[in-house]
Each structure stands twice: as C-alpha cells, then as structure tokens.
Amino acid sequence: EDQVTQSPEALRLQEGESSSLNCSYTVSGLRGLFWYRQDPGKGPEFLFTLYSAGEEKEKERLKATLTKKESFLHITAPKPEDSATYLCAVQIPLNSGGYQKVTFGIGTKLQVIP
Amino acid sequence: DSGVTQTPKHLITATGQRVTLRCSPRSGDLSVYWYQQSLDQGLQFLIQYYNGEERAKGNILERFSAQQFPDLHSELNLSSLELGDSALYFCASSVGHSGRGQFFGPGTRLTVL
C-alpha cells in the first residue's frame, strides 16, 4: 500500500536553530513530491515540487531535497513566523488509464520560539 | 491569497441533513480537487475534476458527490450527514490535470450536530 510518513510529528526550535523535517514514502511510480505549509485553520500553501532523486529547491530559509525513498525540508536559522504545519505529498499513478492522485502525509507541526 | 474561493466559510447543520459546498478555482485553472481534513486524519483526497469531467476519485463516500460546471466552478454535495463528517473541506485548483502545484482555498468548516 502506498504510504507517506512524516517525522517528527512535532518539532520545537529556538529561533536560529536549524533543523530538518523528513518525509519518507513507499509508493510505486513516484511522479512528483510536494511540500506545503499550512497555518491553523487555513488552506495549505504550495512551497516546492521535486521530481527526481538529487533534485533540490530553495526558497528563503527553506530547502527541499529528494532521494529515492525520502525528502527533507531543511530550515536554516528559522524565525517565529516559520511556525506552521509542513505537509508532504506524493503524486502517483492511480491506474493504467493515465490518472494520477496526490497523497498527503499527516504533517510536522513546527514551533519556533523567540 | 491563492485566488481560490470557497463558500460558505462555516456551516453548522444537523445529522441527516444535506449541504452544498462551493468552490471557484483560480482564473485559468481547469482542475478542481476536493479534500477533507479532520484532526486525526490529515488531508484526505476526495475527488478531482478536470474541465468538467471526473478525473480521479479518492476516499469519497457514496453519500458525497461533486460536479464541475461549464464555468469551472465546482460543488461538493454531502448528504445524510453524520457526526463524523465534521471537518474542514478544502478545494484546490491547478492548471493541468496531473495534480502538480495545487493552490488551496481557505476551506469550509463543517460542523454536524
């Protein structure tokens, strides 16, 4: 069965303390991996798409990387405004008809303390 | 602001009732996706429409149905509501049908009493 597992479930960092969030997946035929940020009570906000192992994307203090089995979201010198839940999602084929679906992980709740 | 709009923002109803949630995608986006998010389950994909046609189905109950209209807005119909249907319902849209780079709306919070 296709699975997306994010760890840790929750992470508390001091402002400026860099760390990484993990997204591991067991899927057949990965078509893409996405990272989203979600603030409480709001819709997820798209951050990155990664397509192949070795690919990296950066945006401000965030850097996403992809291997064949997992993806990391590195947060460098985080600020309190980076506090949110970070969601990972994978895109996989749904059937032989060309349809695809996106499966989300439960997320990592990040809290950055001043 | 993602450009995706959802109405209503909040909905409170009783068990057994039927409700309709509405979504307008970003200008130019042809795909609309519906997700359910409850506290213990994370984001669950329900269904996708592309240019008016059903494209992919996830864990959508038979009591739920959706459609996408010619102007590309979409409606999610939930019937015979149960307490467990209380959740945040999100709509997302994207240009293509592959699921990449989805932009999410603000959600509709449904409470079933």
Largest sheet of chain A, in brief, is: 6 strands, mixed
The number of distinct β-strands of chain A equals 11
As a percent range, the share of helical residues of chain B equals: under 10%
Query: Distance N terminus to C terminus of chain A?
Result: 41 Å
Quaternary form: heterodimer
Q: Residue ranges of chain B: pLDDT <50 for 5 or more in a row? A: none
Order of helices and strands of chain B: EEEEEEEEEEE
- Show unreliable segments of chain A: none
Portion in beta strands of chain B: over 45%
Number of helices of chain A: 0
**Morphology call of chain A:** globular
Described by strand count, sense and barrel closure, the largest sheet of chain B is: 7 strands, mixed
How many strands of chain B?
A: 11
The chain-level mean pLDDT of chain A equals: 91
| Shape label of chain B | globular
Mean pLDDT across residues of chain B: 92
Q: Which chain pair shows the most residues in contact? A: A-B, 24 and 26 residues
Structural category of chain B: mainly beta
Helix content of chain A: under 10%
Provide the succession of SSEs of chain A. Answer: EEEEEEEEEEE
- Tell me the Rg of chain B in angstroms: 13 Å
Offer a concise description of the structure:
With 114 residues, chain A is mainly beta. Chain A has strands spanning 3-7, 10-14, 19-26, 32-38, 45-50, 56-59, 62-66, 70-75, 84-93, 100-104, 108-113.
If you had to describe this structure to a student in words, what would you say it looks like?
The complex is a heterodimer of chains A (114) and B (113). Chain A is built from no helices and eleven strands. Chain A is mainly beta. In chain A, strands 2, 4, 5, 9, 10 and 11 form a six-stranded mixed beta sheet that branches. In chain A, strands 1-3-8-7-6 form a five-stranded antiparallel beta sheet, with no helix packed on it. In chain A, a hairpin with a 6-residue loop joins strand 9 and strand 10. Chain A starts with a strand and ends with a strand. The relative contact order of chain A is 0.32. Chain B is mainly β. Helices cover 0% and strands 53% of the residues of chain B. Chain B has no helices and eleven strands. Chain B has strands spanning 5-7, 10-13, 19-24, 31-38, 42-50, 53-57, 64-68, 74-78, 87-94, 103-104, 108-112. The N and C termini of chain B lie far apart (31 Å). The chains are: A mainly beta (114), B mainly beta (113).
